[in-house]
Design brief:
100 residues; mainly alpha; 69% helix; 0% strand; globular
Length: 100
């Protein structure tokens, strides 16, 4: 888990404000899906905190990209809207609840 967590941190999702949400999904989905298939088959509950952490990194990305969403309340409303409109955009959303 330390190795996978380090790789997720190296992605620096919150710094990639030049990308769209769909581009981020295209970039990380194959990697996350592979982790889910491999590690999830053996120890799914250990993988869930990592997948939730990816959600928090995506939330931070939203807050950095859009100035009007810097407050947590507005960013949270945007997060709920995105997860309702595109429930399968990210591969890990199948396992992790996307609402907060």
């Amino acid at each position: 888990m330390k190795k996978i967590s380090g790789e997720v941190r190296q992605w620096r999702l919150h710094r990639q404000i030049g990308r769209t949400f769909a581009e981020l999904a295209r970039a990380i989905n194959p990697i996350v899906r592979g982790w889910m298939q491999y590690y999830g088959a053996f120890y799914r509950t250990a993988l869930l905190p990592l997948l939730e952490r990816i959600n928090s990194y995506l939330m931070r990305w939203i807050r950095k990209k859009f100035k009007r969403l810097r407050t947590f309340k507005k960013a949270h409303a945007c997060w709920r809207r995105i997860t309702r409109q595109y429930p399968r955009l990210f591969a890990h959303w199948a396992w992790v609840p996307t609402f907060w």
